[in-house]
Amino acid sequence: MLGQPEVGAGVIPGGGGTERLPLLTGRGRALEIILGADDFDGDTAERYGWVNRAMPDAELDGFVDSLARRIASFDRRPIEAAKRLVNQVSLPAVDTLLDGRNTFAASLNWPETQQRVAALFEQGLQREGDLEKHYGAHLADLLNDKPD
């Protein structure tokens, strides 16, 4: 499962989520992912352009090994040039990333964030259980689902 659950926890995605995700999925899908704060399966993430491809776990190591060996067989200079040119048109500017980082840091101090984070810990955050396995499903009713 993939997700950007931060808004449901009272913060914004840190680490470039708001800056990079729209470049991958488009604005509408990025807003669905970020504002909806829900879990997404691999097939949906692939269809949205969030991940390159979804595949069964048993196939992943072989695929990655084969791709890495293929790329490693090519000359270094064209690989570097291609990566540099793709990065120029597909990565957010440093100033944009810095603005996102600063907003994330500020959101950690919002009272509503602190209330939601406290509720998450009360309900099992960072402990084995349903909250950890289905995080996104718990966020919409987070403040209503206090355990007895």
Describe this structure in words.
The chain has 148 residues and is mainly α. Helices cover 65% and strands 3% of the residues. The protein has a domain at 2-55 and 93-139: Alpha-Beta Complex (2-enoyl-CoA Hydratase, Chain A, domain 1), CATH 3.90.226.10. Strands 1-2 form a two-stranded antiparallel ribbon. Helix 2 crosses helix 3 (27-36). The mean pLDDT is 93.
Keywords for this structure?
148 residues; mainly alpha; 2-enoyl-CoA Hydratase, Chain A, domain 1; 10 helices; 2 strands
CATH homologous superfamily heading of the domain at 2-55 and 93-139: 2-enoyl-CoA Hydratase, Chain A, domain 1
| Spatial strand order of the main sheet | 1-2
Overall CATH architecture of the domain at 2-55 and 93-139: Alpha-Beta Complex
* Outline type: globular
Average pLDDT, rounded to a whole number, is 93
Total helix count? 10
Largest β sheet strand count, sense and barrel closure: 2 strands, antiparallel
> Oligomer, anyone?
single chain
Distance between the termini: 28 Å
Radius of gyration: 19 Å
The overall strand count is 2
Q: Could you list the spans in which at least 5 consecutive residues all have pLDDT below 50?
A: none
CATH topology of the domain at 2-55 and 93-139: 2-enoyl-CoA Hydratase, Chain A, domain 1
Beta-strand residue fraction: under 5%
| DSSP helix fraction | 55-70%
**What series of H and E elements makes up the topology?**
EHHHEHHHHHHH
**What structural class do you assign from the helix and strand content?**
mainly alpha
What is the CATH domain class of the domain at 2-55 and 93-139? Alpha Beta
